[in-house]
Amino acid sequence: MTTFSFSAVVLLGILLIVFIRNGSMKIGYAILAMLFGFFLAKTSAAAPIQTFLNQIATTINNLTK
Asked: Any residues with CB less than 8 A from the CB of 19 and at least 6 apart, and which?
C-alpha cells in the first residue's frame, strides 16, 4: 500500500509540474489543489478514498498478469 501511495504522489506531482510548465494550470490553482488534498486527507472521507484507490490498483495489477 505504501508503494502505491508514494507512486501516486510522484505521478500527480509530475503531472502538476507538466501542467504548470505548459501554462494549462496556473501556480495558484496548483497550490489550491494541493491544499484541498491536504485538508481532504484529514477528513473522514480519506479512508474510503484510499480503499477505492487500492481496489483500482489491485484490479489494474490483476489485469496485467
From this structure: 25, 30
Q: DSSP of the chain, one letter per residue?
A: -HHHHHHHHHHHHHHHHHHHHHTSS-HHHHHHHHHHHHHHTTSTTHHHHHHHHHHHHHHHHHHT-
State pLDDT tens for residues 8-57: 777 778 888 888 888 888 888 888 888 888 888 888 888 888 888 889 88
The residue written with cell numbers 510548465 in the block is 21
**AA identity, residue 21:** R
Determine how many CB atoms are found less than 10 A away from the CB of residue 30.
Answer: 15
